[in-house]
Amino acid sequence: MRLEEVTTAALVNEARTECDRYVRERPETYVEGTISLWQLNHALQQACRGYDFQSMVEAEPAIKELLAVDFGQKVKDTMLRTFRQTVNQTFNLHVLTGVEKITEEILLKYDQARAFLEQTLEKEARSKIESTLRSLEEIRQKIEEYNRLMRSVNQCFETMHLDRQKLPPITEADLEAAEPMTEPPTVDAAPAL
């Protein structure tokens, strides 16, 4: 079960428990000598005066008002004290322990992920190096072909006794000057995950 589902189920359960308290009146309602007890007695006496249901209907607003006062106080207590603490404890119990487990799993897999990343970067670097070396070899072959053709053209000029300037060959120094980077970049430690 996912952490979110477990936490939601726990909070719903705690809310049900808290709502169960709303069904019962607070003990303070029945303390001798209080206004709430006097009002309750008065409302119940009013409800019991007649022999039909009309007296109960007439007493209903007073009883509802007494229950609303009691209910309001319970809601206030719940919102300010009881349920807030319950929610905090539920989060501490379910969320924090779940997060600690996830953290442990991540830390256990960190070295494995880092090694995998290093292998992946190494493979990519090797692939790029091989591609660069292939390209470099192709360029060298083309240069050799060019230099061979250029020597043939220069021999042709000599054979024809033309006082023309000879075409220069492409040398290894020219190739190095044209290459911005012959060595692949070094790969340091893999970035932290």
Give the overall form. Answer: rod-shaped
Largest sheet: none
Indicate the radius of gyration in whole angstroms.
45 Å
> Share of helix among residues?
over 70%
- The count of domains is 2
Number of strands: 0
The separation of the N and C termini measures 27 Å
Portion in strands: under 5%
What does the average pLDDT come to?
78
Segments where pLDDT lies below 50 for 5+ residues?
Answer: 189-193
Summed up, the helix count is: 4
Helical/strand content category: mainly alpha
Order of secondary-structure elements: HHHH
Structure description:
With 193 residues, this protein is an all-alpha fold. It has two domains: 3-110, no CATH class; 120-178. The chain is 76% helix and 0% strand. The protein is built from four helices and no strands. Helix 1 runs antiparallel to helix 3. It is rod-shaped and about 145 Å long. Residues 189-193 have low confidence and may be disordered.
